Amino acid sequence: MEYSRTIFEEYHIDEDVGFALPLPLEELPHPYDAWISIARNLPELIKNNQLRMEVEKLAMLSIDGLRGHRAQRLGHLVLGYITMAYVWGQGDGDIRKVLPSNIAVPYCKLSEKLGLPPILLYADCVLANWKKKDPSGNMDILFSFPGGDCGKGFFLVSLLVEIAAASAIKGSLSQDVHCSHSRLRLVYTGVIEVRRVYLIFFVCLFLEYVDPNLFFNVLRIYLSGWKCNPLLSEGLLYEGVWDTPKKFAGGSAAQSSIFQCFDVLLGIQHTVDPAAEFLQEMRTYMPPAHQSFLLSLKSRPSVREFVLSKGNAMLQETYDECVQAMVSLRNYHLKIVVKYILIPASRQSKAESSIEDLEAESRGTGGTNLMDFLKTVRGKTVNCLLKEH
Ligand code: HEM
After folding, report:
1. pTM above the 0.85 mark?
2. Res 47: pLDDT
3. Which of 7, 201, 210, 357 could form a disulfide with 353 if both were Cys (CB 3.0 to 4.6 A apart)?
4. 79 near 107, Cβ under 8 Å?
5. Is 370 in the pocket of ligand 1 (CB under 6 A)?
């Protein structure tokens, strides 16, 4: 018990919410409350075209008064929201290529302290952007972008998937799991639970709250980064920090540790192709403790090798059910991407491009050539099935 607690602390993993930040702070002390008040009124300030002016008026603050991990994560979250809003403005193509020093300097210092890149991350807008709305445990997000309830649906569904994975992660940390039987059982329970939650919440919440056109035309813009993005091909200049512009990928659920965690546990290897490189790169957008956790999992015995070495049909079947659950998650995710990116893109396309052309052209907020990437990742997962299905 003591052992697991220490390990939880080492890897910043919570028994109840997994990789999500437990009970994120909602307020910062003066003078950082000025950041909070901008972030809280973001949609209104953007709508009234006042956001950039308000940001430029902010005082340059030292980050020394942000004490403790939760205050620093809240600081990173609000500066991330402010930065995205400052760069993309009203989402109409009038963009800024320079982030003023009063924001850039504290943002980069804080990012360095946390070991995170200075851009809005999944670790910010999903893992640290939530609160319990009422005693019955209903949840809400702390900060929103324009686009109505779109962000709420997207971020909360992702968070619920994270929480569903918590017990499997907890299990994979406990001491007795070098017993490969228990490891397989835990992975099985975890993957099946994640698939269940993913499907239920997508159907019940996501499809209700997240309108494809609002997602595509509004929220997606504010999550976009400045790497492989023709709108900011040089990157963003962080004034007062670096002399040249820097490129960082936008917020994407590809930065979640869960899928990568299950891949490692199941021995699904993504190696030597651009998709593998992208997944590897996405680890550098995760909190350092979670990156270390993924590395530490790799050094433990692989469930796949264990199953193969035993030649036992029941074990193989259980293993295949886990892999099949990952395949169906990735299949369902691909359908969502068609609905939320490709179809709205085809409606907007003046050149009447076909879905195939759009598949080749479209990029995700993380900057990937998205369909190629997602299909490669799914293909690697399918290849891990022991039996043909
Ligand atoms: C409107 C809903 C969604 C859309 C349009 C979407 C889109 C994308 C895109 C375009 C990528 C490629 C990487 C990039 O460039 O960003 C990606 C990757 C990924 N997304 Fe989503 N996503 C959605 C929801 C979710 C949710 C709710 C989850 C689960 C928490 C999720 C998990 C992942 C994962 C794990 C990857 C990495 C590829 C993999 O391991 O299969 N996505 N997503």
Report:
1. yes
2. 97
3. 357
4. yes
5. yes
